[in-house]
Amino acid sequence: MTVPIRVLVCDDQALIRTGFATIIDAQADLEVVGECGDGRAAVDLAHRLNPDIVVMDVRMPVLDGIEATRLLAGAGVAHPVKVLVVTTFNLDEYVYQALRAGASGFLLKDAPPAQLLHGIRTVAAGAALLAPEVTRQLVGRYAARIRPTEGTPGDIALTPRELEVLRHIADGLSNSEIAATLVISQETVKTYVSRILTKLDLRDRVQAVVYAYRRGLVT
């Protein structure tokens, strides 16, 4: 049998926690290993239980979900945990803050259960949940904040083709669109994307977009 994806659910509303846990535990490939109602408890439980993914609310007591995400998945964390932020607040600022803190995905609580399950599986598999065009629009809107120079394109340890693929990722192109643009197969694109993430020590495409903006690869 396949080992189930281990999920920690963090939300300050008990009814929502119970609802999420019920939906998740009903799936053969998912398992809720813990629940909590504030960000500090989420950080403590994640360190103790070592879940594959944390489903995190934004507004919570003691420690909010953004800061908890930063402590679990932010820059410099030795053993980052994948975080899927789920909130009632559909504000660009929350999305931006969550992604900058290290979250790999963002969902609204009113999304249907199927979307929640898809989001958990997608993030657990190492992919970003946001569609490429959404990522491009979001990060582009806050590009001025994340564009402080951190070197030049010449300092980046990528081949010219990998740099080209990275720019296309930052422009919001999907793998199929990159393949069509560069006249290569989608499998080749996937290989390039994997190499880029590995070389730059990035977790997913969201981080790749932010990286590209920081290094001035896109405008």
From TrEMBL:
Keywords: DNA-binding, Phosphoprotein, Transcription, Transcription regulation
SMART domains associated with the record: HTH_LUXR, REC
Gene3D superfamilies attached to this UniProt entry: 3.40.50.2300
Keyword Zinc: no
Record's signal peptide: none
Residues recorded as bearing 4-aspartylphosphate in the entry: D57
Domain Response regulatory: 6-124
Segments forming domain HTH luxR-type: 151-216
Protein name according to UniProt: Response regulator
Entry keyword Phosphoprotein: yes
InterPro entries: CheY-like_superfamily (IPR011006), NreC/VraR/RcsB-like_REC (IPR058245), Sig_transdc_resp-reg_C-effctor (IPR016032), Sig_transdc_resp-reg_receiver (IPR001789), Tscrpt_reg_LuxR_C (IPR000792), WalR-like (IPR039420)
PROSITE patterns documented for this protein: HTH_LUXR_1 (PS00622), HTH_LUXR_2 (PS50043), RESPONSE_REGULATORY (PS50110)
